Structure formats: C-alpha cells, structure tokens
Amino acid sequence: MVQLNPFPAELIKALLNEPSSVKADEVVRYEAGYVVCAVITGLYLLVVPAAGLCFCCCRCRRPCGGRVKMEHKTMACERGTLMAFLLLTTLVLLIGVVTAFVTNQRTHEQMGPSAKALPETLLSLRGLVSDVPQELQAVAQQFSLPQEQVLEELDGVHGSIGNTIHTQLQSTVYEVLASVLSLGQALQVSVDHLRALNATSVELQEGQQALAPAVQGHRERLLALLQEPSCQGCAEALDRAHALELGADFNQVPSVDDALHRLKGVPEANFSNMVQEENSTFNALPALATLQTADVIRELKKVVAQQPRELRTLVEAFPGWEAASRWSRALEEMEQCSRPYLKEVQRYEKYRWMVGCLLCSVVLLVVVCNLLGLNLGIWGLCNREDPSHSEAKGKAGARFLMVGVGFSFLFAAPLILLVFVTFLLGGNVQTLVCRSWESGELYEFADTPGSLPSSMNLSQLLGLKKNLSVFLAYQQCKQGAALWTVLQLNDSYDLEKHLDISQYTAKLQQELQKLKVDVKNLDLLSPAARQDLEALQSSGLESIHYPGFLVEIQKPVVNISVEKLVQELEGLAQTQGNTVLGQQLQKEAQGLRKLHQEKLLLQQRLVAKLNLSVHALASSAPLLQPETSDVLDRVTHLKGELPTWATRILKNESECFLTREMGYFSQYVAWVREEPLSTALDNGRVILCDMVADPWNAFWFCLGWCAFFLIPSVIFAIKTSRYFHPIRKRLSASSSEDTQPFHIPRVTSLKL
C-alpha cells in the first residue's frame, strides 16, 4: 500500500556507478509513500504529546474530565458503552503487544544466525569456482561409493539368481513331480490288482474242477433216495436236489495273460524315492547356481574394482584457471568487508531488541492499568447502593485508568519513532530487495549492461569470453544443468569426456552375459520309471473284457443254497419211518455240509476277491491310458523347456541387476554435474528475506498496531474514569416538576 512504485533500476544504477549524480527529488519521488508515513509520524509526535501536556495542565488547575456532577437518565447507557469500547480497545492492545513481544524475540533470535550464515554463503560461492580442482579430486575418490555398493550386491547375486529360477519354476516342477508320483502309485495298484485277478481266476478254475464231480455225485445219490416210494414228504427236497449243480463257469472268463506278459517286472522303479530325489535336486538349485556362477562373479568383481581410466585423468587434465583467483579475491574482500558491518548490525539489533522490550512492556502496563481500572470501577459501581459502602474502589479504578493514560502520553513519542524507523528499513528491504529478488527483477537488473560497476561484473571476474546472464545461470542450475555449461567452461575443459564411463559399463555388461546355470541334472523321470510308464501305456490293460468277469461273478457257485438243503435233509431223516433211508439221508446231509465248508465257502471267498479286483481295474484302467500319455508328454516337454526357461530367467535377472548397478553409476555422474550455485543464491534470499525481513516487518506492524490503538484507549479511559468517581444522588430535568419529589401548594387567605 505504501510503496506502489516499480523497481527503480535507473536510480540504483546511478547510486552504484555515480552516487554524486543522484538527485534528492528522485529519491523523494520514489519514496513518496514513506514520506507520507513520515508526515503521519510527525503529526503523531506533535499532537499526542501536546494533547497529553494540555490534559496534564488541565488536571492540575481544575478537575478536567474529573467526575460526573449530576446523575441523569442516560448515564447508565453512556457508562456501559464507554466501558465496552474501552474493554474492546484494551483487548486489541493486548493481542498487539503479545504478538509484538513474540515477533521482537523472533527477530532477535534470527539476526544472530543470519549474520553468521552470510559469510558462510559467501564462502560457498567462493569455493564454487576456486575449489574446482580439489572438488574434482574428491569426485574421483567418491567413485568408490558406487563401486562398494556394486561389490556388495555381487556377493549375493548368485544366490539371488538361483532363488529366482527356483521360485519361478517351482510351481510347474512340483506339479509334474506330483503327477508322476500319483501315476506311479496308480501303476502299482493296477498291477497288483491284475496279478490278483489272474491268480484268483486260476484258483477258481481249479476249485471248479474239483467241485464239479462232488456236486454231481451228491445230486445223483439224493435223487435216488428222494425218489424212493418209502420217502415221506420228500417232494420239496426232490425239487432242490434237481437244482443241485454248479452255477458259475470260471473257465469262460477272459484271459489276461497278454497284459500280464507286457507288465512283467513292472514297476521296476521306486516312484516315491525317485520323486523325492528329484525334489531334492530341484531344491538344491540355488546352491547349484552359486557353484556354477562363482567363477564369473569373481571376474565381475575384478572388473568393478578397477577405476575407469577417464576418472583417473579427471584432475590431471584440468587446466590452470586464473579467473578462479580473481573470483576468490573478490568474494574474500566482500566477506572481510561484511564482517565489521555484521558486528555493528548485531550490536544495533541488541539495542533495538532492548528498546522494543521496554516499549512493549509499557504498552502491556497500559493494558494492565486499563483492566485493573475497569475491574475496580465496576466493583465500585456494583456496591454504590450500599449506605455503608466506601467509594475507594471506584476512585482507585479511575486512578488506574489515569495512570494508563499517563504512560500512553509519556511513551507515545518513542513508540511511534521506533515504529517508523523499523518500518522504513524493513519496508525498503522488502520492496527493493526481497520482492524484486523473488520476481526476478534483481537478476534482470544485474544482467543489464552497465548496471553494475566493473568490479562487480561476474563475467569479467570469471574471465569468460561471453557475458554471463545471472538469471539464466540461476535458472539453469536450479534445473540441474552442469556448472561447466553454466559458466561456459567446455571450451577449455570437457568434463563430459572424463565422465564417460561407457567402456567401463560395457565391460561389466559383457562379463554379466557369461553367467550360466545348468539344470540338466534335473531328470524329472528316471529311465526305469519311464520304461514302467511306457509298459503301462502299451499293456492293453484297458482292453480287457471286464464285463465277462462280472457275468460269471454275478452267478452263484451252486444254483441252490446248500445250507438250506442240508437242514431240510436232516429234518427228513428224522421223520422217515424207514430207518435205513433216514440214515442214508443223514449221511448225505453230512457230506453236503462238509462240501460246503471245505470247498464252497473257499470258492465264494475267491469270487469276492475276484470281484474286488475286477471292479478296481474296470474303473481305473480306462483313465490310466490318457493319464500316462499326458504325464509322459508333460515330462518330455518340461525336460526340454527347463534349460530355455532357466536361461530366460537368468537373462532377465542379469538385466535387472545390470540396470540397478548402472543406476548407481548414473547417480554418481549426475552428482558430479551438480554444483551449489542456485543453492547459495537461494540461501542468501532465505537469510535476508525469510529469516530477517519477515519477522522484522511483523514486529513494526504489531508495534504500530499498539501505537495507533493507544489513542482510542486514552480517550475511552478518560471518559470512563469520570463515571467511577462519586456523584450526587439527584436527578436533573428541564422542568421544576421533575426536580421535586412532590408539589406543595401555596397557602392563600380565605374570605369569610
């Protein structure tokens, strides 16, 4: 609001090059806003102390603004309004003085570090150019950092490669091995059932050959006995005897000799042990990769440990630079000249801080007096109706308010002077330096030819062939451009040539390509196991006519129940009148019972065993053929693809490793190219503007706030104090009717 003029480039140019040519009216015209503020400050200095002096003289001669002499109807409203405004003004003063205390302390705390940081910033700018050879030496030595990082990661790269191959292949390998194990178990079960089926069939045929004559003999004898005329009640038994003959004919079942011949000696392999060994071999892949890549890793470490030839000559090839000494001397002179001024700044800052603390304390004292006066005055007003009340509290409140008024008049002049001085200095720093620095106008001024004297010309100091734009250099450095590009040093020294480590990285890449991992030891299926599965595949197990077995199995060994026939014969033997016939029937019953126990039960158990094997083979044999073919195909495919997959995974892992390691070297090269020019300039702006100017301007603003709010505080305090003094207990009005409590009529003479 005060300084609306643009950056005075011509005025600053004249001040730097020809100070005697600067006209006072130009300075006044630019500082017109501050001149107006100076006039306001002068009026404040004249009016406030003069008003205070007049008020003091008035109070000494007569009670000017002393008390309210007469109570009236609107007095309570006026008093309340004045107290409210006084309280509000006091609170505003309290906020202002608290923030003034804080900003005063903040300014004092920032001034010391800022004064110390300024020489450090100049030292940083000084070393920016003068220490280039030393920095190049340090740069070459710092190449060991990415080297050590790469060497550390090389120690674990072989294990990482093996683990990656194992992790990416384990799901496929484990699945195939599980299928092989499952098929091997199914092969074993099927062969066992086939052998059991064949053996049971043979036993059933042999048992049938032995059983047929015995059953036929019993049938013929029973028919002869039961057909005798003397046999009583034998008709039903005779019918059973007619049915006593063999049911199933196991000579009719299909032959399995061909399948047995093809599966002779199968399984030759132990599938469980084989799968366990293959699992162990696959799980040992990380250790195997470590062994197979050990020699290549050793060679890689030798390559990484070598420093690139270009970096070894980084310092040796740097030419002598006379401009560096001029740059160093100029900044050294600036640094030495700034130190006495900085000490003076710190000394005056201490005085400013002490004066600021004193004036803030005075304002705080005024606030305390106002608050005490209001509290005591209100207390006195509340107890005024009590006849025994002493009006000392109200008088004390009024006196406290007058004390605050006195302090306000006494210290108003130094307060407004401190505000104006700090405002003048801080405002000009903010508008002339900080605002133009942030907007870039300061850089444009420095880049304008003739704006700066020759002793401050950056291009001449650095001995550059072309004029150097400060603003462009700042922007380039801020965007990460190389110092060599900014200062145009490439004509005399090619840094990029010495930072070219492409040959070094190419050799590293070439060595990485030698990494190999051989997974041929992983067979997945042994030769014996493969022969077993191929035998199963060609056995024709699924071609056996299992329904032919089931037809005979479903028939009974004997067409009737021999046990029931035995029980019936034993009953008939006891009921026969012919003793000889009864004994013969009893003998036949005993023979049938013995035949049932010795041969029929055995034959039935063999039939049950045969039934179990037939059903097991009938359900599994149709599935074994496609499953065997699928497993053999998968094993053959995986065996052929494993080396290709392992090579591809190894290549990807090597490329990832190389990319990561190249990133370390790229970071190193990028770090070499970065120099602190933009950082140093930004630090200077932060020191001057953020750390010093901002709290400085906040301090004068808060102090000026307090200075201008002292005026309404004085007015309201004087007005309010009048109502805290004792007043007469009578009302004032415009008519005599209102001033008397009642009217007494005048007595007149009476005529008789």
TrEMBL record:
It comes from the Eukaryota. The chain crosses the membrane at residues 32-60, 81-102, 353-379, 400-425, 698-718. GO terms for cellular component: apical plasma membrane; cell surface; cilium; microvillus membrane; prominosome. It is found in: Cell projection, Microvillus membrane. It is a multi-pass membrane protein. The keyword Heme does not apply. Pfam families: Prominin (PF05478). GO terms for molecular function: cholesterol binding. Keywords: Glycoprotein, Membrane, Transmembrane, Transmembrane helix. Signal peptide: none annotated. Belongs to the prominin family. This is Prominin-2 isoform X2. It comes from Neophocaena asiaeorientalis asiaeorientalis. The lineage of its organism: Eukaryota, Metazoa, Chordata, Craniata, Vertebrata. The gene is PROM2.
